[in-house]
Structures are given as structure tokens and as C-alpha cells.
Specification:
The protein has 559 residues and is α+β, with helices and mostly antiparallel strands. The chain folds into three domains: 7-181, 2-Layer Sandwich (Formiminotransferase-cyclodeaminase, Chain B, domain 1), CATH 3.30.990; 186-346, Alpha-Beta Plaits; 354-558, Four Helix Bundle (Hemerythrin (Met), subunit A) (Up-down Bundle). The chain is 52% helix and 14% strand. It contains 18 helices and 15 strands. The strands form four sheets. Strands 1, 2, 3, 4, 5, 6 and 7 form a seven-stranded mixed β-sheet that branches. Strands 13-14-8-15 form a four-stranded antiparallel β-sheet. Strand 3 and strand 4 (49-56) form a beta hairpin. It is globular and about 80 Å long.
Length: 559
């Protein structure tokens, strides 16, 4: 088995948000590195800061980050920089985030490699933070950045603030850079109906984990050691401040959600709404800076649907739409999921997927003289329609008047149906991809004995895969029967026939996929494997025929 590809994300923050030419020169350095994909460039005029996001395998990402930091040092003069956001360098902060196939420990090593290169080759003082911190008191970015650029000339002379890499000498033009490794962070701003920074800060202090300094009678409360006593905020793993954004004419609560598993996006938003209201303000919307994981948007959509006592078993697109509208993510600018959700931005497949076609295009493509898509893809699509009908009945049942006590039950069934539908839709394209693999294998050269052996091995591997995909369609299709049976038994009686049609779709799909398993297995030289797969397919087909017959019998009796 091949080792999983290692992917890390890098999100450098550059202290320039006005001059787009400078920003482009920096991002051009990133894009010229092969194996790196630039995902997002988010400049802010008021903060005079640009957040850049790119991904790739570790070494290319490290190379791209170094070139970007080098170019920023060349183009940005910190002695002339002004902006609303705290900062201490031309490249203010440069975190690495493990995405897949790589541990945090490995990401830390890459961060330290980058820090060493920047410190030694560019003469920029570098401090390591978060998981890459080399001293416990340097884990927190805010602690390192305290005093900002203006106070750094004195700070670097302090023996406690000798940089981790680079000479302990103030770099007047470039300042200092903080490099580290951390979990995925969501930069999130909540909009208020006020222009008061002080009032926005009051809400921010309510929210952030670090809270505020405790006061009594207008004086700070100190403990026995003379240390300020703090009142913790409401949200764990949240950093927040209030600021005024002249560009929009409003104050915002600017939050960093440092662990979205502990405090997810929707909880941060709703808690901000509650605290703003308690202080006489209203939240009018919010904005995401940079990218957000798909899961955050789906969880938010489900959360707001649950508050409305509605089924959460809606499509991915509908859940995202609910999240956008519920949190007002489109108040200040259009929110395009294709540009803001990290999984969507990374999915840059050149060839058009079948499931991206409309109904007419899909039918025309199937009816063309090309052998693909064929029966396997159609079987998967018909099964997805069966799952969709069962899901529809679950959602309609959750809305039926007088059935409020059963909303959660129907919602759970609908969520299950949505997942099955999505899995089956993926198999629509996968079956065509499997056929293409066979055609590619047959196209390999066969001039020498070695080439003939390689070609035969490739054909057999592709044929095995082309047999496995329709077998998987059968298995996934069969998983739809419990949903459909339940909807026929206890679902909205007005939708009884819809659920039954779903059962008919599933049986047809399973039968069609069975035929594809048989014909593809016939091309396998490993007859033992072929026999096992065909026998498994035959058993699923027999069970499917019985399930469909039972569901149709129940339907006829109810009618």
C-alpha cells in the first residue's frame, strides 16, 4: 500500500493590505514553486495586512514560504507601516498546519527548518510559537508580539527575548517574524451595529478564553503574589479583540478560533449574539477571513436547523446556504463557497465530473457513442435516486403537523440518507474512471517482454478495480433498504408511493451493478478472486430482491 501523501497548509500574514502590486509579487513567489497550490489571498485595507493560504507537500511548501518571506522583506518597510492589526514584522506570522498524512510533530520539524533558513539567510529575528515553541512562554503569539514593531528595538535587547533563530539585532526594515506549527485556525469577525471599539472590546472580553482583568471599585484585583486576577471568558480556545473598521463603518469582534473542535464557528457566533444583546448591541452579520473547513459549515447549518426544530438531513449545498444566512456571512461581501471552503478550493479537477452535469447533459452524454458512462454509472445514479426518495420522505415526515415528537428520529434517518446518496453519487464517476483505467492499460506499449508483462499486470489491476466498483455500488445500494422500509412503515402516509419507488430504484440499481460485476469479473485471470466476488454479488442480489418484494407488498397493503 502506498504511503498517504503528506499535505500541509501554510498561512503567512504579510504587513501589506493596500498595494496589490506588492501582494502579487509576494504570491508570485509562492506560485512559481512546483507542487504548491495557492488557495486564497485575502487583503484588508483597514488592517493593512494580507492573509495568504497555500498547500502542498512539506518541502515545496517550506520553499515557497521562504521565498515569500524573502520577497516581503525586500518590498515591505515596517518603519512606515500603519494598520489596525497587531504586528511586528513584514511577514508577521507564518504558521504551518498539518492537513493530511502528517503529524504535528513532523510539522514542527518543518517549521523549525523554515525558521532556521529565515533567521540565518535573511537576517530576520525568528521566534517559534505554538507547537513549535522552543520555550514555554513563547507558545502564545500575543505574548511574543506584545509591544509590536514599535517596541521591538528595546525588546530584543532583553536576554529573555533573544530570538530562536537569527541574530539578536533589531531589523528596522523587516522587523521580526513568528513561525510555528498549529492546528487549523479559523479567523472570524462578527459585525456589530456600533462604531465603538470600546463596546466591541467589552463583548470580546466576555468571549475570549483569557477574559479580562478583574476589577473591584474601579481598581484591578491582585493576588497574594501581586499578579492581576483574571475573570475567564465564556469560550475555550478563542482569542478576541474589538476594533473599528473604517472601510465598513462598523466595529467588529475579531476572533481566532484556535480549536474548532472545542469552540466551533456557530457557537462563537451565537455566544457573540447573546453577549452583544446583553450589552445593548446587535450582531448584524459576520465574515470569514481566509478559508474554512467544510465540516465547520455543515455543522453550523445543522446547528441552526436544530434550533428551528427542523430536519438536519438536507443536502450539503443546502446546509451551507443555511449556515451563510444564519451567520450573515454575506453581509459585507458575497460568500462564495467554492472560494471560501478549503475542500472546494482544493478540488481543481480539470475533467468535468458526470455529477456536475445537469439532467439533460448527463442523458446526452450517456446516449453518445462513447462507451462510458455505461450501465455501472447509471446503476449508481439510480441507486442515488432511491436514497434521495427515502431521504425526501424522512424530511417531509419531520415537518408533518402533530409529529414534533418524532423530528429527531426522522432527522437522523434523513442524515443517513443524505450520506448514502452522496456516497452513491461518487460511484457514478468512479465507475467511469474504472473503465478509463482499463482503456489506458490496453493502450500501454507491448513491444518487449517486459512491456507485455507490465501491460498485462496493468490490465488485470484495472479489471479488478472495475469489478470492485459495481460491487461497492451493490453494497451501498443495499444499505438504503432500512431507510426506505422505515419510511414505508412509519413515514408520512401521503408520501408512501415515493418511498416505494425508492425501493424499485434500489433493486434496479443493484441488479444493474450485479451484471457489471459478472461481466468485469470474467476478464480476471485470478478465477478464485473472481468467483468470490461474483458469489458475494449474487447473495446481495438475492437479498435485494426479497427486500424490494417485502417493501412493495407492505406498500400495496397500506394503499
Amino acid at each position: 500500500m502506498n504511503k498517504q501523501q503528506q499535505i500541509i497548509e501554510c498561512v503567512p500574514n504579510f504587513s501589506e493590505g493596500v498595494d496589490l502590486n506588492i501582494i502579487k509579487q509576494i504570491t508570485d513567489e509562492i506560485e512559481k514553486v512546483e507542487g504548491v497550490k495557492l488557495l486564497d489571498v485575502d487583503p484588508g485595507k483597514a488592517t493593512n495586512r494580507t492573509v495568504v493560504t497555500f498547500v502542498g507537500e512539506p518541502q515545496p511548501v517550506i520553499d515557497a514560504a521562504f521565498l515569500a518571506i524573502q520577497k516581503a522583506a525586500e518590498l515591505i518597510d515596517m518603519s512606515k507601516h500603519k494598520g489596525e492589526h497587531p504586528r511586528m514584522g513584514a511577514t508577521d506570522v507564518c504558521p504551518l498546519i498539518p492537513i493530511s498524512g502528517i503529524t504535528m510533530e513532523e510539522a514542527v520539524e518543518y517549521a523549525r527548518q523554515l525558521g532556521k533558513r529565515v533567521g540565518e539567510q535573511l537576517n530576520i529575528p525568528v521566534y517559534m510559537y505554538e507547537s513549535a515553541a522552543q520555550k514555554p512562554d513563547r507558545q502564545n503569539l500575543a505574548t511574543i508580539r506584545a509591544g509590536e514593531y514599535e517596541g521591538f528595538a528595546d525588546k530584543i535587547k532583553d536576554a529573555n527575548w533573544v530570538p530562536d533563530f537569527g541574530a539578536p539585532v533589531f531589523n528596522e526594515k523587516s522587523g521580526a517574524t513568528v513561525i510555528g506549527a498549529r492546528d487549523f485556525l479559523v479567523a472570524y469577525n462578527v459585525n456589530l451595529n456600533t462604531n465603538s471599539t470600546r463596546r466591541a472590546n467589552s463583548v470580546a472580553f466576555d468571549l475570549r478564553e483569557n477574559g479580562r482583568v478583574k476589577e473591584e471599585n474601579g481598581k484591578k484585583v491582585m493576588d497574594e503574589n501581586g499578579t492581576e486576577v483574571r475573570e475567564p471568558g465564556l469560550l475555550k480556545s478563542v482569542k478576541a479583540i474589538g476594533w473599528f473598521i473604517e472601510e465598513y463603518g462598523i466595529a467588529q469582534i475579531s476572533m481566532n478560533l484556535t480549536n474548532i473542535n472545542i469552540t466551533p464557528l456557530h457557537i462563537a457566533f451565537d455566544t457573540a449574539v447573546e453577549r452583544a444583546h446583553a450589552r445593548g448591541m446587535r450582531v448584524t452579520g459576520s465574515e470569514l477571513v481566509g478559508l474554512v473547513p467544510l465540516k465547520s459549515m455543515l455543522d453550523a447549518g445543522k446547528y441552526f436547523l436544530q434550533k428551528q426544530k427542523r430536519s438536519t438531513g438536507l443536502s450539503e449545498g443546502e446546509l451551507i446556504r443555511i449556515a451563510i444566512k444564519s451567520m450573515g456571512l454575506d453581509e459585507l461581501a458575497p460568500f462564495d463557497p467554492q472560494k471560501k471552503i478549503i475542500e472546494y478550493v482544493m478540488n481543481d479537477t480539470v475533467s468535468k465530473r458526470l455529477i456536475d452535469m445537469n439532467l439533460q447533459q448527463f442523458a446526452n452524454e450517456t446516449a453518445s457513442e462513447s462507451p462510458a458512462p455505461g450501465g455501472g454509472s447509471i446503476s449508481a445514479y439510480v441507486a442515488s435516486l432511491g436514497a434521495s426518495l427515502g431521504t425526501m420522505v424522512a424530511n417531509l415526515s419531520s415537518h408533518k403537523k402533530g409529529w414534533d415528537a418524532q423530528i429527531e428520529m426522522f432527522s437522523n434517518w434523513a442524515e443517513n440518507g443524505q450520506q448514502l446518496k452522496d456516497d452513491l453519487l461518487k460511484l457514478v464517476d468512479e465507475d467511469t474512471i474504472a473503465f478509463s483505467k482499463i482503456m489506458d492499460a490496453f493502450g500501454l506499449p507491448k513491444n518487449t517482454d517486459d512491456e507485455k508483462k507490465a501491460r498485462t499486470a496493468a490490465i488485470q489491476s484495472a479489471t479488478l478495480y472495475a469489478t470492485q466498483i459495481p460491487l461497492l455500488t451493490m453494497k451501498k445500494g443495499f444499505e438504503c433498504y432500512p431507510l426506505i422500509r422505515e419510511m414505508v412503515n412509519v413515514g408520512n402516509p401521503n408520501s408512501l408511493s415515493d418511498a416505494a419507488v425508492g425501493a424499485l430504484c434500489i433493486r434496479a440499481a443493484i441488479y444493474g451493478a450485479y451484471l457489471n460485476v459478472k461481466i468485469n469479473a470474467g476478464g480476471l485471470k485470478d478465477k478464485a478472486t473472481a468467483e468470490v466476488m461474483v458469489n458475494e454479488a449474487r447473495e446481495i442480489l438475492a437479498k435485494s430482491n426479497q427486500e424490494e418484494a417485502d417493501i412493495i407488498r407492505i406498500t400495496e397493503e397500506k394503499m
